[in-house]
């Protein structure tokens, strides 16, 4: 409801005058240039070739902005109306800078493509809705300029990021993803899945009470998640190791640790003991094989070796818990 009220306060695109359309084009070019420069700053340290692409694209946007300002001077004088995309209904809402700061390289490339396509559609739609000859010519020139942006963007990408550079940068992005999210998350999942097996199944077979077993599993999973999360975040700030934000790594480790234990804890909400235990055991089976799969996919561990390490180790812990519970 609030979003509808806010959008109703915006101008309709079809209510804009020729001068306002030109002013909107000028402000849009300024915004896009600023966004491209922000992307360049974000990428420069890790992806210098892609950063150069966005610097050159920003320069292109500045060039077209200057051309648009000159057009405005010729037709309407020096005073440019203040109108931006967020003032007009139907425009794609771009995220603010602080929400774009953590985008991946592929997300940034996709966002740039969306920006160029959106600008072209803006001018194309304006042409279709305008009957005045001079306005149609003006909008047609702007549409051709935006179409040229796409061609220039393609040319710049080919110049600065040929396939071998793209592969290198994509591999660097993948490596960073593994270090920041997969590695601590996998360690947490292994710890949460394996280390909670013994206390949960020992409690189950010792008490025969599904509710008490659930409470034991819940406390073990949440406690392990908190402990692993804080440990991961505190022991390495990521500056020298290059493993990324300690907050992100801590969250990945803590959440996956808790989920690893909760997977075979939640079945004990089922009141029937053997049904709950059989369900929990089946979930343990899938958890252990999922860990082996993740190790093989992201950590380049041979699948059979990962399976032997995780599945065999987990099975031994599970058996120990059952034996202790029956003791």
Please give a structural write-up.
Helices cover 78% and strands 0% of the residues. α5 (105-128) packs antiparallel against α6 (133-160) and α7 packs antiparallel against α11. Mean pLDDT is 77; it is low at 1-7. The protein folds into two domains: 10-161, Ferritin; 173-326, no CATH class. It is an all-alpha fold. 32% of the residues are buried. The protein has twelve helices and no strands.
Shape field: elongated
Provide the β-strand percentage band: under 5%
Number of strands: 0
**Cα radius of gyration in angstroms:** 28 Å
Structural class: mainly alpha
Helix content: over 70%
**Roughly how many Å apart are the termini?**
61 Å
Largest sheet: none
Number of helices: 12
Low-pLDDT segments: 1-7
Total discrete domains: 2
Encode the helix/strand succession as letters: HHHHHHHHHHHH
Question: What's the average pLDDT?
Answer: 77
Sequence-ordered SSE layout with sheet pairings:
Elements: H1 2-8, H2 18-43, H3 48-76, H4 97-100, H5 105-128, H6 133-160, H7 163-195, H8 197-207, H9 210-235, H10 246-263, H11 273-298, H12 303-326
Helix pairs in contact: 2-3, 2-5, 3-6, 5-6, 7-9, 7-10, 7-11, 7-12, 8-9, 8-12, 9-10, 11-12
């Amino acid at each position: 409801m609030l979003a509808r009220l806010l959008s109703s306060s915006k101008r309709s695109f079809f209510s804009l005058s020729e001068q306002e359309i030109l002013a909107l084009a000028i402000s849009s070019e300024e915004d896009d240039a600023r966004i491209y420069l922000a992307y360049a700053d974000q990428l420069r340290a890790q992806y210098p070739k892609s950063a150069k692409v966005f610097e050159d694209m920003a320069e292109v946007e500045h060039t077209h902005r200057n051309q648009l300002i000159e057009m405005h001077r010729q037709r309407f004088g020096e005073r440019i109306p203040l109108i931006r995309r967020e003032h007009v209904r139907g425009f794609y809402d771009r995220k603010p800078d602080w929400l774009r700061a953590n985008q991946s390289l592929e997300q940034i490339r996709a966002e740039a493509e969306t920006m160029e396509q959106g600008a072209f559609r803006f001018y194309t739609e304006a042409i279709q809705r305008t009957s005045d000859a001079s306005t149609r010519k003006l909008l047609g020139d702007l549409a051709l300029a935006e179409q040229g942006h796409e061609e220039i963007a393609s040319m710049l990408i080919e110049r600065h990021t040929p396939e071998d550079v793209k592969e290198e940068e994509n591999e660097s992005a993948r490596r960073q993803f593994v270090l920041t999210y997969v590695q601590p998350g996998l360690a947490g999942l292994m710890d949460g899945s394996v280390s909670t097996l013994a206390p949960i199944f020992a409690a189950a077979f010792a008490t025969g009470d599904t509710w008490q077993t659930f409470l034991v599993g819940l406390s073990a999973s949440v406690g392990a998640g908190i402990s692993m999360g804080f440990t991961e975040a505190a022991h390495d700030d990521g500056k020298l190791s290059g493993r990324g934000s300690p907050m992100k790594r801590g969250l990945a480790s803590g959440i996956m640790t808790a989920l690893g234990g909760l997977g075979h804890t939640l079945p004990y909400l089922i009141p029937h003991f053997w049904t709950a235990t059989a369900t929990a055991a089946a979930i343990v089976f899938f958890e252990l094989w999922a860990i082996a799969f993740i190790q093989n996919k992201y950590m380049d561990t041979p699948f059979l070796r990962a399976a032997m390490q995780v599945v065999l180790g987990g099975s031994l812990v599970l058996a120990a818990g059952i034996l202790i519970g029956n003791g």
